[in-house]
Design goal:
By secondary structure, the protein is α/β, with parallel strands linked by helices. It has ten helices and ten strands.
Length: 278
């Protein structure tokens, strides 16, 4: 792809590993789980404890929420970040949370282990540049109508500022169908793995918006070559402030985690790689 200099594979660089505490994303399977938003301390810590028990190795939660309506819940901001920090102390799980404003990058980085740039900000170039300068790993979600080239160009903005730790995240595209919230494009996972050295994970919660489809899409993502999954989980989805319809219970996530680990182990086994198990 013309103009891409840092995100494509080379003879010297075929795979990037992103260190997150004791994990290496790109080698270890990332199992990211947590609520759409940080609502209060009890909800956040209770969910964090339960998803860790269920097998999560990274905790997600939104302190800042980009919402379509200006009248919807926008997140708790700094209070939410402090709650996330406390959840990390309670569980030992590293934290991923979204940044919306370039001016917030550095102080959010004081609390979070991974900074997420969401689908709506995929081409917020000032934000991408600041993310590249902050030194923390960046989880870069694909936009709702973003091509593969545009996605990688956005990653280039981060990489070109000196930050090699970029994790791509497929979260579904907006199409004509109305059956699901979005159309989860798992073919792009295989495409990214073929041409780019960057790790890629999948968010089936936003990709489908349907709890019944999230478990099979998690497994399909791993079969397609994804380095991890990110799932919305709430200890009591009926009480969730946002995205309650797609939030899973911790026990359901636990089943997904078990099957995902087993599938990843099978796909990376010597027998499977050699073809002797087929």
């Amino acid at each position: 792809m013309k103009g891409l200099k840092l995100s494509l594979k080379t003879e010297q660089l075929t795979r990037t590993l992103v260190p997150i505490h004791n994990l290496m994303i790109g080698r270890d399977l990332a199992l990211i789980a947590g609520p759409c938003s940080v609502e209060n301390e009890h909800q956040t810590i209770e969910t964090a404890l339960r998803v860790k028990k269920a097998g999560a190795n990274i905790f997600r939660g939104g302190a800042f929420k980009p919402r379509t309506s200006p009248y919807s819940f926008q997140g708790l901001g700094l209070s939410g970040l402090k709650i996330l920090s406390k959840a990390r102390e309670e569980t030992g799980l590293p934290i991923v949370t979204e940044i919306l404003d370039p001016r917030d990058t550095y102080w959010v980085a004081e609390y979070a282990d991974i900074l997420q740039i969401g689908a709506r900000n995929i081409q917020n170039f000032p934000l991408l540049k600041e993310a590249g300068k902050c030194g923390k790993p960046i989880l870069l979600k694909r936009g709702m109508q973003t091509t593969l080239a545009e996605w990688l160009y956005s990653a280039e903005y981060i990489l070109s500022e000196g930050n090699p730790h970029v994790i791509l995240c497929e979260r579904g595209s907006r199409t004509f169908q109305t059956f699901c919230r979005n159309t989860l494009d798992l073919s792009i996972v295989a495409a990214v793995k073929e041409i780019s050295h960057l790790p890629v994970i999948v968010d089936p919660s936003h990709g489908t918006g349907r709890p019944d489809l999230i478990p099979p899409m998690c497994l399909a993502a791993i079969a397609a070559g994804a380095d991890g999954i990110m799932v919305e989980v709430h200890y009591n989805p009926d009480e969730a402030i946002c995205d309650k319809d797609q939030a899973l219970l911790p026990d359901t996530f636990g089943e997904i985690a078990l099957r995902s680990v087993a599938l990843r182990a099978f796909l990376t086994s010597d027998d499977y790689q050699s073809g002797s198990s087929l």
